[in-house]
Amino acid sequence: MADHPRFGPAGVPPLFRVLGARLSDVPGLLREEGLDAFEYQAVRWGQKPQMKQEDAEKLGFEARESDVLLSLHGSYYVNLCGKKEVVEASKRRLIACATAADWMGAYVVVFHMGFYGRVEKSYAFRNCVNALKDIIEAMNNLGIRKVKLGPETMGRIFQLGTLDEILTICEEVEQTQLVIDWGHLHARHRGLFRKIDDFRAVIEQVEKRLGTQAVRNMHCHFTKIEFTDKGERRHHILDEPKYGPDFRMLAEVIAEFNLRPVLICETPLLDVDAVKMRDILREVMRE
Ligand SMILES: [Zn+2]
Asked: Is 105 left (phi over 0), alpha (psi -120 to 50) or beta?
């Protein structure tokens, strides 16, 4: 949860790696760029944390020193709507992610719920909600109470993750954090965001369902995105004029509603575009 809008990259920027930076150097380097959020990518993880507790704690320490807010993107190998054994393995993967998030002090594990598959959408959704309740219970039994689970709006039509589904999860499951991926929503609805009102409509819906605090404290992903009839195809950089959504319009709405989201940049340029997004919001706020 942020006290002001925060910006940061999804994962370690490639240049940091070229410079030979260690994971624990990342928060300080982001701070030098004027960024204040970082989403650690645990996207290929299996059923055990794939980092040492010591390294996670070191990252957490450095992040607090540099006032960089940490989040963790959970494993892609998760499907909470499928067959029992798939769901059970998915639960273990998310619990492993939550364990590491707890070590580093990340406030949320962002994750993808999975695919509808051949079953009724409403049936898949119920399975997912039940699995999430089990995961929260398991986390609490492990003493993990500060980390929230962050279901994300998804970009492809066969993936569970419409705005309505995400809002329902946040209403029904405790210890959840709303995650709006604006690029995904744009792609799923084949170009949803054409004018400022289209962004406003999402904000108003979130506020109506989850309240003012939830809308103010959204965790967001942003990228320009290319899509087909089935949804998301490819991420693009902020300066690519051919694709939407337009970050300036979102910035206008953030200013208008006095929001303080965490904005994680998922364009191919990561930190470079995160800085651009921050500057656009500053400009809009000044106007
Ligand atoms: Zn994601």
From this structure: left
* Distance (Å) from CA 222 to ligand 1 centroid: 10
pTM above 0.90, yes or no: yes
Distance from C-alpha of 280 to C-alpha of 278, rounded to nearest angstrom: 5
Q: Which amino acid is at 202?
A: V
Tell how far the Cα of 151 is from the centroid of ligand 1, in angstroms.
9
Element (H, E) at 172: helix 163-172
- Six-digit token pair at 261? 């989201």
In 3-state terms, what secondary structure has residue 7?
A: strand
Cβ-Cβ contacts under 8 Å for 41 (sequence gap 6 or more): 10, 11, 12, 73
Please give the distance, rounded to the nearest whole angstrom, from the Cα atom of residue 43 to the centre of ligand 1.
Answer: 9
H or E segment at 121? helix 121-141
Instruction: Characterize 1-34 residue by residue with b for buried, 16 or more Cβ atoms within 10 angstroms of its Cβ, and e for exposed.
Output: ebeebbbbbbbbbeebeeeeeebbebbebbbebe
pLDDT in tens, 115-127: 999 999 999 999 9
CA of 241 to the centre of ligand 1 (A): 23
pLDDT in tens, 158-193: 999 999 999 999 999 999 999 999 999 999 999 999
Phi first, then psi, for residue 171 (nearest 5°) are: -75, -35
Q: Decide if 150 contacts 179 (C-beta within 8 A).
A: yes
CA of 175 to the centre of ligand 1 (A): 19
Residue with tokens 């598959």: 117
Q: Distance, CA 10 to ligand 1 centroid (Å)? A: 9
Q: Give the Å distance between the CA of 65 and the centre of ligand 1.
A: 27
Is the model's pLDDT at 215 over the cut of 60?
Answer: yes
Cα 73 to middle of ligand 1, angstroms: 7
